[in-house]
Amino acid sequence: MTAKRLMSEFPPARDKIVTLANWRKQPFSDWSFHNVRQLLPTANIPASKTPSTFESSLAELGHVTFEGFGGKQVTLNALLRETRAKGFTVLHRGKIASEWFAHGLDPMTPHIVFSVSKSITGALGGILADRGLLDPKRPVTDYVPEMAASVYGGCNVRHLLDMTVGISFVEDYVDPDGDVAKYRLAVGWDVIPPGKNSPALREYLGTQKPDGKKHGDTFHYVSTNTDLLGWVYERAAGRAYADLLSEYLWQPMGAEVDAYITLDREGAMRTAGGICAAPRDLARFGEMIRRRGVANGKQVVPGWWIDDMIDNGDPQPWARGEFAEVFPGASYRSKFYQIDRKRHTLLCWGIHGQFIYIDPPSEVVVVRNGADDIPADFDSVRAWRRACDAVAKHFS
Question: Which residues are catalytic?
Answer without folding.
Answer: 115
